Amino acid sequence: MADEAAYEAYLGELRTAFSGFEIRRKSEHRSQRLIAALLRFLTGGQNTSYMTSVVTTLGDAVYVPDAWFEWSALDRLLILRHEAVHMRQFRRLSWPGMALVYLVVPLPFVFAGGRAWLELEAYKETLTATWELKGSEAAQSRQLHDAIVARFTGSDYGWMWIRGTTIRRALEKHVRDLQK
């Protein structure tokens, strides 16, 4: 019950901070279905999770899988903390800036440094939120770090970074910084 209250309170904070904040079901938006098809094509059929387990933020809109409301309130809160970073990035960089950095700079795949930079900023918030809401042990867990590294090096983000050790070191450094 406390997790649900914390989730609802955070929704209120997001509505205050972002006047256009909205949670939208991916399945109800043609653009999201088109993105899913494009990602499947660009990844040779390997990206099959876009509609079912990936949350996507575009501007102040957070697009969620249909199962979103079945996920625990704590998981939804942790994810929204991550997505709020992306909403702030959209404000800072603008739509054209985000598109350029996220999709092109310097390459669309393998060494997509712009996308990796934006996502690393958000995943650091994932670690911070995990630390605050689940404790230091959860934020330091090998399983969590492995899952994040897999996102960077796998088809979910179009193999945006092939050096998993670089990402792992950045995550470990962030957790050390949280300990200070």
Main features:
63% helix, 3 strands, mainly alpha
Task: Give a verbal description of the structure.
The chain is mainly α and 180 residues long. The protein has one domain. 63% of the residues lie in helices and 6% in strands. It contains 7 helices and 3 strands, in the order αβαββααααα. Strands 1-3-2 form a 3-stranded mixed sheet. Strand 2 (56-58) and strand 3 (61-64) form a beta hairpin. Helix 1 (2-17) packs parallel to helix 3 (73-103). The longest helix has 31 residues, at 73-103. The radius of gyration is 16 Å and the shape is globular. The two termini are 31 Å apart.
Brief overview:
By secondary structure, the chain is mainly α.
> How many DSSP helices?
7
Detail the poorly predicted runs: none
Beta-strand proportion: 5-15%
Kindly report the spatial arrangement of strands forming the biggest sheet: 1-3-2
Please identify the structural class as seen in this structure.
mainly alpha
Radius of gyration: 16 Å
**Helix content class:** 55-70%
List the helices and strands and how they pair.
Elements: H1 2-17, E1 22-25, H2 30-42, E2 56-58, E3 61-64, H3 73-103, H4 113-134, H5 136-139, H6 142-153, H7 164-179
Parallel strand pairs: 1-3
Antiparallel strand pairs: 2-3
Helix pairs in contact: 1-3, 3-4, 4-7, 6-7
